[in-house]
Amino acid sequence: MGKGGASIPDEEWDRFLREAEAGDAGAPKEPSARARMVAGRLPKDGSRPEGWRSHPPARRRRGKGWYAVGLLVAAGLLVVALDPGRVAGWFGGGDGGSEPLAAESNRPSGPPAEVAAQRPTIKEPFRGSPAARWGDGAAGIHLPAARATGWMSKKQVSKALERTQEFLSAASLDRGVLRGEYPRKAVELINPQQPDVQDYLKTAFDRPSRANDPLMLFSRFEKSKVRPAGDVVKTRGRITFREGKRGALEVTADVTYVYPVVRAAAGSDDVARVIVRRETVLSWDDPAKVAIDPGTFSLISYRADTTNGGCNTHTGYFTPEFRAERAATGRGDGREVDPYDRSTSMDARMREAKEGECGTATRS
Prior knowledge:
single chain; two-stranded parallel ribbon; 20% helix; alpha/beta; disordered N terminus; globular
């Protein structure tokens, strides 16, 4: 069993464990995530991934919202959402009467249809948002049918996909983590034999910064400032897979999360929504070829595009703005972006974004 999870049953795992115990001198080495990302999307100078999704403090913002961009594997977008309205639960309810959407098995051809502008309420925190028809929690993340891929059998692929979904839930849906706790369960699923990744994780929580931002992988709010509005996080997205390097199972998760929150003060009823789209690419490696703890995966890349989570603030927590605060600030200085539009790939969105920019969200 690897840290925090059961190993994927297979003779390959058994053989790996036997060799590890015996101290096999020919044990494979795991390329660092930095090296793996260099081969994919990262700079070739070997630098650690920077905070692609940054959350700059409010700049001249008015009207519907703003966003900010960081850099690297994906200059992340940060947007302050449109005038949410009063509310108070944490991830709750839908827009009554609307039929839920079918799972997103493929990239949509266009953005969601316009929804009548309505302020969310404590009972309906997703009111006036396309997310009202999205899935609740992990139910909104489409899992594809498994098939034998690379070094893994169909059964192993199925297990790896399930554990990938477990990671997404532990990183972005766990109630304790959302309230600012350390994401232990999620971190334990990451290969501990990637020293640069482990160093990044430790630094990100101890000394969060633009270069080491925990919000690239995890969703966290400072409980002394905000609290959830309801019990549901709305999600929409999908998991895909293919054969990667060295016969590994390479899995990509592209998911948008919608978090309704209110101020922590008792009686607060002004609901703001934080919208986060994350793309995480991970590798379930063959232990005969790569140094990895059974039951864990190696990170290849990760990036995020955030609406109303802060603009160039690096506290390790999302810092949403509420109606009164947005009224005092102006419109962002960047392009307009629909945070619910999943028809554009993360690659395309990141190419269009500019570092340090606070743009305007067309809706919240």
